[in-house]
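ugh ok so i messed up the first submission bc i forgot one of the chains. this is the corrected input, ALL of the components this time, i swear. 903 residues overall. if the numbers dont match what u have on ur side tell me asap before i send this to the collaborators (the ones from the other lab, u know who)
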Amino acid sequence: MKITLTVNDAAYPLDVEPRRVLADALRDDCGLTGTHLGCEQGVCGACTVLVDGEAVRSCLMLAVQCDGVPIRTVEGLAGPGGEPHPLQRAFSAERGLQCGFCTPGFLMLAAGALDHDPRLGDEEVADLVRSNLCRCTGYEPIRRAITRAARDHQNGQEGRHRSV
Amino acid sequence: MVDRWLRREDERLLTGAGRFVADLRVDGRLDAVFVRSEVAHGVLREVDCSAARETPGVAGAWSAADLPGLPPMPGGEPAREWPALVEDRVRYPGEALAVVLGDDRYHAEDGAARVRTRIDPLPAVVTARDAAADSVALFDGLSNVALRGEAGSPIAGEVWERAAVVVESRYRQQLLMPSPMECRTILCVPEGDRLTVWSGHQAPHRLRSELAALLDRPEESVRVVVPDTGGAFGSKSAVFPEFIVVAWLAVRLGRPVRWVEDRRESLLVATRGRGQDQHVRLAADADGRLLAYELTVEADVGAYPHLGVAFPMQTAWMATGPYTTPLVHATVRSVLTNTMITYPYRGAGRPEATSPLERTMDVLARRLDLDPAELRRRNLIPPELFPYRTPTGRTYDSGDHPAALDLALRTLGYDGWRAEQARRRADPAALPVGIGLSCYVERSGGERGSLHDYVGVEAGEDGTVVARCGAASSGQSHSTVFPALVAETLGVEPARVRLIEGDTDELPGGVGSFGSRSAQIDGAGLQHAAGLLIEEARERAARMWDLPVEETAWSEGAVHPVRGTAAMGLSELVKRTGPLRIDERYEADMAFPFGTHAAVVEVDPDLGTVRVLRLVAVDDCGRALDPAVVRGQAFGSIVQGLGQALYEGVPFGDDGVPLLANGLLDYLLPTYAEIPPIDLRETRTPTPRTPLGAKGAGESGCIGTPPAIVNAVADALRLDHPERLQMPLTPDVVWRAAA
Ligand code: FES
Ligand code: FES
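and heres the new structure output, hopefully the right one now
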């Protein structure tokens, strides 16, 4: 099937089999290998990307379901000038990653949540961290990272609002 | 401005620019998919790949019969050979019957689905105890027992008879899946006479020599490169049957071939850890002084003899633990079972040594009506006795065990929790709480024959420094930590130093990263090599300046005459005197990290649920190269230990097939929902065995935490029969124990 994936604002015209899952299309057809596969059964969340702003497990979605829908992956997380997203900064600062394999999934999950509501509370952050698997960090550093990013994000936005 | 990224690894891993094996693009690459046995044990009657070969997108399909000359797994016994593809007998579930190569994984799987196989099932044995009976033989005419060993000397009967108390118990150290988030990977790219192998692996040089030997080609013709690796925990340190098939086909076809294991396969055929049935006897006098300890291990080592058959000896050698017990005897029997092989998993032999001893210490305390902390205090090896030679043949380098215990008790607020426990015991409506302790000592660095590594430090004309070592990181921050260490030794800015590792073309040899050895051995080696580079720089400068070497000195990355101010930096020195590179094979002795973990749990006896209220871990790994990295390792390791204590395990059906059909919905890795408040504390007792003083870190949680949690549950339930509590402590297990 001929479809166009719109990933991080770039168009990727593809000819894919209907059975092809989104994760494989992103990784192999678009060459965006930042999205990882840890279980291919919807449990680990390493493959999480934003489809139309919603966090989805890209191992459970078909590429053809995403024709023409905006998709955001970890490669599109940094700002247009390449400045890191508050989450990227915070994950580094809080040591929210070791091997980094699960990281893109946590980043995109949290990015989607922050876009919806920059004022993430402790419970919401905990819910996010509970959604995905990490075998290295023990999660607490990931929780701290998302909390810190939410704070920075808010400060950044308020800062911007003030300066307007 | 402060650096935006705390670790050098962070930028690429946080922006999607990391490169794991599955991310590498190579033209013309084929994907391998294996057809696997659905039975645990049986006679293979037929494998027919013809329909698979006709499948669109399939480049080829082969059974063992189609690949004469395919080498078997190395390190086994001729009489009990482990073929890379099953020849006539299936011995573990998931064993590979055929391989299909496709232009992508979808097509290869299409082909695999069309391979026809027929197996006549045989009865299967999945525990060491069952297999040792030899009623089902994995190899006709041969016993299932693959190895017997012992540490220490047998203990005379009168010792047990005369002791005031003898505690006897049985424990099961269940099979665990290491479960790195990235499963195993290999990509073999043949080019001319060279074969480049990309693999997420812990021991690239060993993989190179094994593959070269298997393929019967010179070692130099194989290059192994380890790119970003998504965790390993021991599970990526060997060569595997699938690796042999992939490398063999890549060479034979002259095309790049890749195998990226998926989670389903991994749960079936990745190496597993632990897997021991244990029996213990512990004797003490009326004051609680330990007199004798006996540990009998029946180890389940999987379906074929292999390197891991001897690993349970680690448990025997470490059986003494941190106590002054004068008589200790440990025996091991490694038994073949119808399971994929057991192999080191984070802790590898030391969790299996710590758990039975620490659990039995708590039972002993109860029998003697002694506080478990006090019982331990009376028996811990005092600091002045180091180096301490144990009855099981280890010589512990250094330690202050009582200090670790005291710090753990203080951090936990031990007396406060005991008061709370008493309060709840007096209140019939309150859920019971229990407090569990676990004092451990472990071994890091390696065993004889693997206590060295290759290291190098090279100064460039541009003022940069390249450090090289035989280690391979799978999340341990080597690219950050090792350059910082070399920079500190040389007195230069860390930004000027970079690390190259995980590439067999870069060093003449290497051992790798396992057994908590990288900081201890490679770290000490890099510090040593940097020191040699300074000496060489001084000698060169002395010649240039026509001074005796003693008249030169080194500071802040530059050599200068002792008298006078003229200094010459590394870049200038290299420009004037030529390339400056030190390569060393560095060797040191093993070391013994130690500590105390403590847990507080609340148990609901009616539901069998366990809530961990608090965990405290006091670990001592000597000098920590980067304390924050060490804490990250400790924390993650504790969570894996929590997984063993409460959630993880491999249940089997009667047919010997693991009941893990629903993948990670059946094999329960801890999530954030399960993480209790965890306090980390450190004591610091450097190892005298290297000038650096670092001992291994990162396995402590898997070693110290599980018995602390189990002891806490037993304490909450006031159990006299600890055998009823066997890990994982699922609600079912706890409910039955409480009943
Ligand atoms: S790979 Fe999609 S949830 Fe694990
Ligand atoms: S950082 Fe390795 S799995 Fe999360």
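quick check: Residues 159-164 of chain A have pLDDT under 50 and may be disordered. that seems consistent at least. The CA atoms of residues 94 and 144 of chain A lie 6 Å apart.
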